[in-house]
Specification:
CATH topology: Aminopeptidase
Number of helices: 5
Number of domains: 1
Number of strands: 10
CATH architecture: 3-Layer(aba) Sandwich
Helix content: 10-25%
Strand content: 25-35%
Largest sheet: 8 strands, mixed
CATH superfamily: Gcn5-related N-acetyltransferase (GNAT)
Shape: globular
Radius of gyration: 15 Å
Strand order of the largest sheet: 2-3-5-6-7-8-10-9
Length: about 230
């Protein structure tokens, strides 16, 4: 998924993290978001670490410095970074810079990102969080990334449902949007399964990795989310 690469002009979650950190935070090659790099909607959420969110199979928790090896493991996979704005991590320094960036989000007053951890193994298998936000409109972008060996198992669908519950619950957002490469069918299915509707296509919207990308925009508003619960 393409949340915007924050350092790449805040293009998304898989695309939303600063290019200088080369971090991985977007499903494997699911959406265009990069890490989340969004301003908090209210002072109440500033400077506070993200709450722990739990599902049947997952624990979504704040990132830790000790997550380096798990992040490096999935972020070095070229398939994981195929449809996101950041390049695959080549060294542990790349992953370390990402961790420093994402751990520092609360201090910068940004909406959070979560480490996606398997309950059964304790292994960190991905990241999910908010990208660009517009507090005046109670709107934010979501993006995620997932290790390839976890694709096709409903892992990111489970994580996304938890984050949308947070968005329309404690955060009181009105709308959440996501940006997805048009060829990233797997990520679009994850978004649609969560109830997000296709709102349009942005043609040749981003110049990334040597070419222009067409981007699908999907979104959901609070009443739609609540009606489906």
């Amino acid at each position: 998924m393409i949340a915007v690469d924050a350092a790449r002009a805040r293009l998304g979650y898989a695309a939303a993290m600063p290019a200088s950190t080369k971090g991985a935070t977007t499903e494997g090659a699911s959406t265009m978001h990069g890490s989340t790099h969004a301003s908090a909607p209210s002072s109440g959420t500033r400077n506070a670490p993200p709450p722990v969110l739990e599902t049947a199979r997952l624990v979504l928790r704040p990132f830790r410095a000790s997550d380096l090896e798990d992040v490096f493991r999935y972020a070095t996979d070229p398939e994981v970074s195929r449809f996101v704005l950041w390049d695959r991590h080549e060294t542990r320094d790349d992953s370390q810079r990402f961790l420093e960036w994402v751990i520092g989000q609360p201090a910068r007053g940004e909406l959070p990102s979560w480490a996606v951890v398997q309950r059964s193994t304790g292994r960190l298998v991905g990241s999910i969080g908010y990208g660009a936000s517009e507090p005046a409109h109670a709107r934010a972008e979501v993006g995620y990334v997932l290790a390839r060996d976890c694709w096709g198992r409903g892992v990111m669908s489970e994580a996304l449902a938890a984050v949308l519950g947070h968005a329309f619950g404690p955060l009181h957002l009105h709308k959440v949007v996501a940006h997805c490469h048009v060829q990233n069918a797997a990520s679009r299915r994850v978004l649609e399964k969560a109830g997000m509707r296709h709102e349009g296509r942005l043609y040749e919207q981003l110049f990334v990795k040597g070419g222009y990308w067409d981007i699908d925009v999907l979104g959901i508003v609070d009443r739609e989310w609540n009606a489906a619960r």
